Amino acid sequence: VWSQPALETTEIDVDGGIDQDIFDINEALGLDLFEGDIKLDGMQER
Amino acid sequence: NSIIGDNYRWPHVIPYVLDDSLEMNAKGLILKAFEQYRLKTCIDFKPWEGEKNYISVFKGSGCWSSVGNRQEGLQQLSIGANCDKIGTIQHEFLHALGFWHEQSRSDRDDYVSIIWDRIQPGKDHNFEKYDDKTSDSLNVPYDYTSVMHYSQNAFRNGTEPTIVTNIPDFMDVIGQRMDFSDYDLQKLNRLYSCSSSLSFMDTCSFELENICGMIQSSDDNSDWQRLSQVPAGPNSDHTNMGECKDSGYFMHFNTSAGAKGSTAVLETRILYPKRGFQCLQFYFYNSGHESDRLYVWVREYTSAHPNGTLRLIEEIKGSPATYWQLHHVSLNVTSKFRVVFQGMRGSGLSNGGLSIDDINLSETQCPHHVWHIRNFTHLLNTSPAGTAGRIYSPPFYSSKGYAFQVSLYVNGTTDNPFNLAMYLHLISGANDDQLQWPCAWQQGTMILLDQHPDIRQRMSNQRSITTDPLKLSDSSSTYFWDRPDKVGSIASFPNGTTFMRGPGSGTSTFLTHQRLRSRNFIKDDGVYILLTMEDISHLLSTQPSVSPTFVVNTSSANTIKPTSNTTATKPTMRPTATTTASVTLTEKPELPNSCLDNPCENDGVCVIVDRAPVCRCPAGDNWWYMGERCERKGSTQENTIIAVSSTISVFIVMLIVTITTAVCLKKKYSQ
Asked: For a tag on chain A, would you pick the N or C end, based on fewer CB atoms within 10 A?
């Protein structure tokens, strides 16, 4: 293991610090998909 | 649980298009997800070449798919922003292959409780279940570990879970997005009648006495022995780590006896490659002397050499150690072959020998680098959260020559202390003056290895980061992936050598400690982080030059409408450079544009083959277009008419000839 003295290195979190699941992502976008991530065709919707 | 109806199945090889709207990181990850399908199932994916039905993967709003093959020509699957995780992509493709969510199966109430009053108003319908006339659980038990299961907090209104598992131990299991579970694979393989997978070749943990069909060579001085422990080490095998009574074997070559140079050779059974590249993985334990050697060879059989010829692949040497170490060896074999393990006694005094265990061979690419972190439990127990508990990997070079390093927060960041956090950094390296900056389209993949002995049952956790040459730093004053000696900060190696480390990109929620302690992530008190950084700039332009049946609207999940199912649209131009003058994408492929003026008639589709335009002509059950530009139509009806006409013509001609002959003969004889 390579240890590092306290010299600051910047880091960006691509998830913004939140462990977002598929359903959280789609919900935040306001999508109204079946069970959160399923696109139904017309017949299934009926 | 799968949608019922064979009409919803895809063929085993699924045509796909990667739309250029996709993020580069997502494109690379989709290809990695396909590799997991190839490793663990018989489902394969191929770039679309004019097939009627295919999956178009694009960056829409969110992550979504239809369930099953809708047989509507182009079928869309969206991998939107933040969906670029391999588990998410595997999840969406399982929908496309015909699977619903796990907790919607008909018997789910036996295994989970839906807490209806914790669900957001108006979202109850997302927790419906289907009866067994609609969905089929394929005779597989309810699977808390499925990649298709909701997490405990799905659609919650508040802070309490909406799904509670009837067996409490599974509360933190549901909702995993690491990889397919064993039952996911069982169901997929049952649904598609898979009897084997495409890229898996062999696994062996030496638990059975037949040692997986391996053979001892007669051209050596000694044999490998199947043992469960050796006084000088190892004390146990790697498969079970000595935890299971009457099991736990490995193969050992004793180098404490015999003369210098004496050898023992162990050969696998004959294997038949399909792809021409393979990755051999195994655990190795050296309790002998540093002069002892393990050689990995392949014995290749060809028509010219039916008895096989040996080719040395790798010499493994090193100081003896008191632990098992993972090795990867890349092979590139195209004819039938065996892998040959040759142990050789060195010149030094040995009390032990060489041992191997948990071998896996697959037709996949090996990871480029391995970071082995030992005494990991101690690190977990003692490291503080935040930067004080951050450790760095050794420096590595990518295949293009970029130097990089990974940082790991063992006990997470201060905001996420119960997670592993992992970040990728470019660092200053020996090739920096010759490299392109800012660094463009290099995809770094960090895999925390599930050390299950069988590669097919591993559920490793991984994340990928792709360098975007135009990405700006937070201050917007510099490019994020520019030269580390320009945008980085000074750092030093343990030996005191200083270098520059660029900013890191990654996630503070790489994996929860709860999941880290599950499965075989920590084994022999060590973890393995497999690292690969590869150039994916060839994926900049992936979509075909023409969309044949639909216009794709990538703006919203709900606004996608087919325009026509017969008319080819105007050719879609591939994107030109996505970079400014300050960045030169030396690897960017030259884009063929011969299809821009679509030469194909009658709805033919223009595709580029060997950099030349070729028309793929439409065809129905009893008709087809043909010719270079699909200008001629053929049909079975026309063929029948032609055949009948030809027969009648031949008959008439024959009749005329016969009559003429008869008349002439009559005339001759009458004379």
From this structure: C
